[in-house]
Specification:
heterodimer, A: alpha/beta, 7-stranded mixed sheet, B: mainly alpha, 11 helices, 2 strands, globular
């Protein structure tokens, strides 16, 4: 195994050095343009820069000749079309109207055969409407607002699972625990901030929970900018839930944690929709009391147990992006480019209709992705139906993957430990 | 019995929450009382104070020891802001102070965003993180410390304004600026002092709030919004009014949130505000 790992590392190093070589060799090949819309300036610029680097890495690997257990990588471009792909980036500034203009520009001036983007849900919404109008396929690898695929668009495909999937995962996790550990969850309390994020997550948690026969004992929406949550904590205490599901940012997450400890609200588990609970400040502020908190995630380096490409791509990415590791956002955008490349190649043509048909027929098994997904396969609404998240638990001051069980780094601790103070 | 315990718990939580609101509101009401200026950047002063307290905590100076340092720093900052900025606004039409201080809000938030980024930062291992339990009730130590701070600050400020020479001068300026000038009071100096003291109050508040809240560029805004309601309810310019208003808002929020619905917890607060504005436009304890 160590020898093999070293070989893989060598292959990764070779791949980096080989990329410029591959490019010059293939300079006479025709170029197919994919338009990418990202928040390259504005409040999300930092995230945008990472997404851009991840997408560019994916395109370079498609055009290169080193192969990995990933679709379309290492074939010197798209073999059926004898062409290379080229990403042209446009800035959404994180604003819906700018995203619309960027889509317009990429389609009419850059002649993009397909679009990818845009991370922020509201910008994805507007840019994909432009693509719909022009009849250009749009792949969204990274926006999780459930409503995006409910708009009846013909040209819109989403490879990432939505927040509804993550809510579903919580209940699947309970079912798995019931089977393996005889753990029984009945009463669920749902807390969520009252913005798009919290409302979407809470709606999904409530609908799926009721559908699966759980008792939703209370559901509370609160403003994320609140400075006190006394009444909310008392409500939860009176409802005496087995599990509390939370969609919160950091300041409000900390207020609730303090309230739960003061009022001795001691559920068997707290299931968080990442956000505040994966902020670096959370463990720092909560210390020992962060132990046992569950949170959903979209990606983990532990997925290497399924696909050995994960650490290699991570290494390549770190070389390009200031030693920052691959994360849920960058891994999803990396995969997005491969999904598009795969569809365009199978289409064997740059005609939008052919690419759309090929996208709709996409079938990539989960173990050929960097993600914890079962597969990439789009349903009638363009949503990847094979999407899934992972569940992590804070153990020993670190986020450990505990579900799905086949990529788990630690067994889950249930119920969570009692508050330390 | 359980219903009774819940009621008592809500009462305790509401009172303490109100005291935390008062902590932020007293500085705002002082500045208004003396200068007739609503400082829209009040929350941003609080945010700066929280960053300052965080900086001190990082070099090992805890919130209680750091409190006077932050208060002094904010006092000086307030005086500088007054000299360079607010003084000029006062010479213009009344709305100049509204737009001017609002511009200051945007500027300070932008600077904080650029310098500190939008990350949430908490003090490393702050003291008073335990819970005080008594007769079936529970309150967090940090909130109790913040509440005591609010009471001392309000009492101190009240005593200063009522019983010292400078305090009397402040009241004179508040009552009649021209007459005060004729009596030999340097209005500019009093104004600067009041603005500085308002900032010092919010400095003390910021140091205490680091016990229980993280700081980020818009951290002050959520507190400031409540502070404006508190001051309007209690009476613009009245220090006791700010305390009464804050306790009222705290109780209404907590009781409304529990017995109505958490989503509607601000409804009783704003209803009370509407009633007071209609029946007593100057606020509960406001003058005029």
């Amino acid at each position: 195994m160590p020898v093999r790992r070293r070989c893989l590392a060598l292959a990764a190093a070779l791949a980096v050095s080989a990329i410029p070589f591959g490019r010059t060799q293939a300079a006479d090949q025709p170029v197919i343009v994919i338009g990418s819309i990202l928040p390259l300036t504005g409040a999300s610029a930092q995230t945008g820069a990472g997404l851009r680097a991840a997408q560019q890495l994916a395109a370079d690997l498609v055009n290169g000749h080193v192969s990995y257990p990933l679709p379309m990588v290492g074939k010197n471009g798209l073999p059926h079309l004898h062409a290379r792909i080229k990403l042209v980036f446009a800035d959404s500034q994180g604003k819906p109207d700018q995203a619309r203009a960027a889509a317009e520009q990429l389609i009419t001036q850059e002649h993009a055969v397909a679009l990818i983007g845009c991370y922020i849900s509201s910008t994805t919404a507007t840019a994909s409407q432009v693509a719909e109008r022009y009849g250009i396929p749009f792949l969204n690898p990274d926006s999780s607002a459930p409503g995006l695929t409910a708009r009846g668009l013909k040209w819109f495909f989403r490879s990432t699972p939505s927040d509804a999937t993550f809510a579903e995962n919580f209940y699947q996790f309970f079912a798995d625990l019931k089977r393996t550990k005889k753990v029984d969850v009945k009463k669920v309390a749902i807390l969520g901030e009252d913005g798009l994020f919290g409302t979407g997550a809470s709606d999904a948690e409530e609908d799926i929970g009721k559908h699966r026969g759980y008792d939703i004992v209370t559901r509370i929406a609160y403003p994320a900018t609140t400075t006190e949550v006394n009444a909310e904590v008392q409500k939860v205490k009176s409802a005496a839930p087995d599990v509390i599901m939370m969609a919160s940012y950091l300041p409000d997450a900390l207020l609730y944690m303090r309230g739960f400890k003061d009022q001795n609200v001691q559920p068997k588990a707290i299931m968080a929709q990442d956000a505040g609970f994966i902020d670096p400040g959370f463990i720092k502020a909560e210390g020992a009391d962060a132990e046992g908190i569950f949170t959903r995630e979209v990606f983990s380096l532990a997925i290497k147990h399924r696909n050995q490409a994960v650490p290699l791509i991570d290494q390549l990415f770190r070389q390009r992006f200031g030693d920052k590791s691959l994360d849920g956002n960058t891994a999803r955008d990396f995969m997005g480019v491969l999904v598009l490349a795969d569809a365009i190649d199978r289409a064997g043509s740059t005609k939008p209709d052919a690419i759309r048909t090929a996208l709709a027929a996409t079938n990539i098994p989960g173990n050929l992705t960097l993600m914890p997904w079962k597969s990439i396969k789009f349903d009638a609404q363009g949503q990847n139906e094979g999407g899934a998240g992972i569940i992590e638990q804070i153990q020993g001051g670190k986020y450990e993957t505990v579900w799905p069980f086949d990529i788990a780094t630690k067994a889950s601790i249930w119920p969570m430990p009692a508050w330390k103070r | 019995m359980e219903a009774l315990t819940t009621f008592a718990q809500l009462l305790a939580s509401g009172l303490l929450t109100g005291l935390v609101f008062a902590l932020v509101a007293v500085g705002l009401t002082l500045v208004y009382g003396v200068m007739d200026v609503v400082n829209f950047a009040h929350g941003e002063f609080l945010m700066l104070a929280m960053y300052a307290a965080l900086g001190l905590a990082l070099v090992g100076i805890g919130p209680l020891l750091g409190l006077p340092l932050v208060a002094i720093a904010l006092f000086l900052f307030g005086i500088v802001v007054y000299r360079l900025f607010v003084r000029r606004l006062l010479a213009g039409p009344p709305e100049a102070t509204v737009f001017g201080t609002f511009g200051l809000l945007v500027l300070l938030q932008g600077i904080a965003q650029a310098v500190f980024s939008s990350d949430f930062l908490s003090a490393p291992r702050p003291p008073f993180q335990g819970t005080i339990r008594f007769a079936g009730l529970a309150v967090s130590q940090a909130t109790v410390v913040e509440g005591i701070g609010a009471l001392l600050l309000t009492a101190g400020l009240y005593a200063f304004v009522e019983y010292t020479e400078t305090g009397r001068a402040m009241r004179a300026v508040a009552e009649d600026r021209i007459a005060a000038t004729l009596m030999g009071i340097d209005v500019q100096r009093i104004n600067g002092l009041a603005f500085g003291m308002g900032a010092a109050c919010v400095g003390a508040a910021g140091a205490l709030l680091m016990l229980s809240y993280p700081v980020y560029p818009t951290a002050g805004a959520s507190f400031a919004l409540t502070a404006f309601v508190v001051v309007a309810l209690g009476g613009f310019g009245s220090i006791q009014g700010a305390l009464v208003g804050a306790l009222l808002v705290g109780m209404l929020e907590v009781f409304g949130g529990y017995y109505l619905s958490p989503e509607l917890k601000m409804v009783p607060v704003f209803l009370a505000y509407l009633v007071v504005v209609l029946l007593r436009p100057q606020g509960l304890l406001g003058r005029r």
